[in-house]
Amino acid sequence: MSFDPEAVREFERDSWNRAATMYEGSFATASRLFVESLLDAVEVAAGMRVLDVCCGTGIGAGAAEARGAHVTGLDFSAGMLDVARRHYPDVTFEAGDAEVLPCGDGEFDVVFSNFGIHHVPRPSMVLKEIHRVLRPGR
Questions:
Q1: b/e string for 1-35 if b means 16 or more Cβ within 10 A?
Q2: Is 9:76 a contact under the CB 8 Å cutoff?
Q3: How far apart are CA 135 and CA 138, in angstroms?
Q4: Most CB contacts within 10 A, which of 10, 47, 130, 135?
């Protein structure tokens, strides 16, 4: 049996689409606990251009926006993005693939992911893309 990244991607997308409406009352209660520490670690501050990769229901993106950052949340699950847009209407949320970020080189001051990268088929590709879209020197 060989590794099929597209099968993994479809499995994850389908799973998150099904889980989206229940996520806030389940795993989000745990993942929410780490958001402020994560944003502190990557030094999110007012005025920064920030990308939340695999943003899910937007908890991290919403917290970064509350700090005054200009935030884009990216996820491949339409269900999760629907929840995110309802909870954080001032944040820009886009559908997209973390392995091929639909962003320009050096577009963001900060890129983070709260419990997301381990859900993609090829995490090393995501990390290369994050490096590409980060402003040089970050």
A1: eeeeeeeebeebbeebbebbeebeeeebeebeeeb
A2: yes
A3: 6
A4: 130
pTM for the full model? 0.84
pLDDT digits (tens, 9 = 90+) for 92-131: 999 999 999 999 999 999 999 987 787 787 899 999 999 9
Q: What's the pLDDT tens digit per position in 38-52?
A: 999 999 999 999 999
Rg of the chain over Cα atoms, rounded to whole angstroms, equals 14
Q: Which two tokens mark 83? A: 């929840």
